[in-house]
């Protein structure tokens, strides 16, 4: 059977740089492709260039060099077509406080030249648990509800690519989990999602791929599972039957740490090494007469990997 060619990416960023008038280079030769239907998390410290990159893709900021296409439409030459494919949920809560939820979402749809479609607006509001609030003025809503209104506005014109810039900033834990569920449902409906977040657990739970940006450079783009496999380390914690006063001699070849109370040893090892060294360690402990009560392992979190990556660039 003939093999079907891979589907073209919904977003292509090719060699994009941005230098501001004062000479500050916010982005340096960014290359990135986003597949249709994926959730992509863009991580980076403050000032790394996340918002600049999103603003360029959305046509808010002009690029200095390079090319951006959205569903095959150049963001410069075919601005209206490209922009109509994009929904943007900004970090700041920018809404008209005196408008009703229904009116502000319906108005956003009109801004993109879309015909009135009360059924679509109703669906968006119901999906975001805003239907009961449709006649409320924005000013009467909680912070979490206002953020939902921003998402509803971004979805009003039926975009295929949705940007969420810190979507759960300032939202309590319960509402944050609800927002995650909203994002999953959007993906199920065929919307491609790019999110920036300071909550690393958010990316770890939701994203298919992770991109890390630091000082204007995209230093890594990787499948989440592969990233955890390649850059993750594991720790083996050994609970001891009798506490040790000091680290025994003859264990220098192992990356071992003795707990302050002397009741446990922690062994760090590379998950990708040909040999983890665990068998040798256990054999050596038995030879030294060090008996174990229990043992457990812990995998690196995405947050630890992210911090290590960024620190290496400083």
Automatic annotation (TrEMBL):
Keyword match ATP-binding: yes
Keyword hit for Amino-acid biosynthesis: no
Domain ABC transporter: 11-240
Keywords: ATP-binding, Nucleotide-binding, Transport
Organism of origin: Jiella endophytica
Protein name according to UniProt: ABC transporter ATP-binding protein
Gene3D superfamilies referenced in this protein's UniProt entry, alphabetically: P-loop containing nucleotide triphosphate hydrolases
Sequence similarity: Belongs to the ABC transporter superfamily.
Gene Ontology MF terms in the entry: ATP binding; ATP hydrolysis activity
SUPFAM superfamilies recorded: P-loop containing nucleoside triphosphate hydrolases
């Amino acid at each position: 059977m003939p093999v079907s060619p891979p589907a073209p990416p919904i977003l292509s960023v090719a060699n994009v740089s941005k230098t501001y008038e004062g000479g500050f280079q916010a982005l340096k030769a960014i290359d990135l492709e986003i597949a249709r239907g994926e959730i992509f998390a863009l991580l980076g410290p403050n000032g790394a260039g996340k918002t600049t990159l999103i603003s360029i893709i959305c046509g808010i900021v002009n690029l200095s060099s390079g090319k951006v296409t959205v569903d095959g439409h150049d963001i410069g030459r075919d601005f209206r077509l490209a922009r109509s494919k994009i929904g943007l949920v900004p970090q700041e809560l920018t809404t008209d406080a005196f408008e009703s939820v229904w009116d502000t979402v319906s108005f956003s749809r009109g801004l993109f030249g879309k015909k009135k479609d009360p059924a679509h607006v109703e669906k968006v509001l119901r999906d975001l648990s805003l239907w009961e609030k449709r006649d409320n003025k924005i000013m009467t809503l909680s912070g979490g509800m206002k953020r939902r209104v921003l998402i509803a506005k971004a979805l009003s014109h039926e975009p295929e690519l949705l940007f969420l810039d810190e979507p759960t900033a300032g939202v309590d834990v319960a509402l944050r989990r609800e927002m995650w569920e909203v994002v999953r449902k959007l993906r199920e409906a065929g919307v491609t999602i790019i999110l920036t977040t300071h909550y690393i657990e958010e990316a770890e739970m939701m994203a298919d791929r992770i991109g890390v940006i630091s000082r204007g450079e995209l230093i890594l783009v990787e499948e989440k599972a592969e990233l955890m496999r390649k850059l993750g380390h594991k720790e083996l914690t050994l609970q001891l039957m009798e506490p040790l006063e000091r680290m025994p001699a003859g264990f220098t070849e192992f990356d071992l740490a003795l707990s302050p109370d002397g009741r446990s040893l922690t062994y760090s090892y590379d998950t990708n090494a040909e040999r983890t060294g665990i068998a040798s360690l256990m054999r050596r402990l038995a030879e030294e007469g060090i008996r174990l009560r229990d043992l457990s392992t812990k995998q690196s979190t995405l947050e630890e990997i992210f911090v290590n990556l960024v620190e290496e660039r400083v």
